[in-house]
Design a protein that fits this description.
The complex is a heterodimer of chains A (114) and B (113).
Chain A (H helix, E strand, L loop, with lengths): L4 E3 L2 E4 L5 E6 L6 E8 L3 E9 L2 E5 L6 E5 L5 E5 L8 E8 L9 E2 L3 E5 L1
Parallel strand pairs in A: 2-11
Antiparallel strand pairs in A: 1-3, 3-8, 4-5, 4-9, 5-6, 7-8, 9-10, 9-11
Chain B lengths: L2 E5 L2 E5 L4 E8 L6 E6 L6 E6 L5 E4 L2 E5 L3 E6 L8 E8 L9 E3 L3 E6 L1
Parallel strand pairs in B: 2-11
Antiparallel strand pairs in B: 1-3, 3-8, 4-5, 4-9, 6-7, 7-8, 9-10, 9-11
Classes of the chains: A mainly beta (114), B mainly beta (113).
Chain lengths: 114, 113
């Protein structure tokens, strides 16, 4: 059974550019969440999608956005990149939203902003 | 405000030297506590879910326990391959159906041979 796949694994951008990250969840999983991980803040929740609808959003500026497609694949976009956006972006999937569900994480996309 | 705090931030053990990691939480209601392991360059990997005070779960050299205010991850006779960052997290309880987790900042464990 394939795990959660994130692409690209590594990328380098400059300030002001934008970036799009992709996440393919485990087959059959309809819930996709995104987290930002930095050494100082740890894992911070970005947003969560279920059945193509954003269900929750974390405390991040509007430059961070996302979407989910009908096949449950998800993308997140960061516009007008800032140095502080350098982080590991993790995607996680789960079969459902109700209950205390185990999240299965991908390996992450490591973004460096110069 | 819901909060999860882990201690110590870093721990260095000799192979075979048992110890415990702590995760304390302040949440309005608990519907589970998760432990994850994260290796460098990888995403977190699920270890355990605990649901109620008094519950214990074991996996190889790891045992997780839960009280009303904290959870412990006990590592018995660790090996170098147990070196990793250990994260605990609690699910958000309000705001409707959600998988949002509040994570602690983790404990970086290094086991030396």
């Amino acid at each position: 059974k394939a795990g959660v796949t994130q692409t690209p694994r590594y990328l380098i951008k400059t300030r002001g550019q934008q970036v799009t990250l992709s996440c393919s969840p485990i087959s059959g999983h309809r819930s996709v969440s995104w987290y930002q991980q930095t050494p100082g803040q740890g894992l911070q929740f970005l947003f969560e999608y279920f059945s193509e609808t954003q269900r929750n959003k974390g405390n991040f500026p509007g430059r961070f956005s996302g979407r989910q497609f009908s096949n449950s694949r998800s993308e997140m976009n960061v516009s007008t990149l800032e140095l502080g956006d350098s982080a590991l972006y993790l995607c996680a999937s789960s079969p459902r939203l109700t209950g205390a569900n185990v999240l299965t994480f991908g390996a992450g996309s490591r973004l460096t902003v110069l | 405000e819901d909060q999860v705090t882990q201690s110590p931030e870093a721990l260095r053990l000799q192979e075979g030297e048992s110890s415990s990691l702590n995760c304390s939480y302040t949440v309005s209601g608990l519907r589970g506590l998760f432990w994850y392991r994260q290796d460098p360059g990888k995403g977190p990997e699920f270890l355990f879910t605990l649901y109620s005070a008094g519950e214990e779960k074991e996996k190889e050299r790891l045992k997780a326990t839960l009280t009303k205010k904290e959870s412990f991850l006990h590592i018995t006779a660790p090996k170098p391959e147990d070196s990793a960052t250990y994260l605990c997290a609690v699910p958000l309880i309000y705001g409707g159906a959600t998988n949002k987790l509040i994570f602690g900042t983790g404990t970086l464990l290094a086991v030396q041979p």
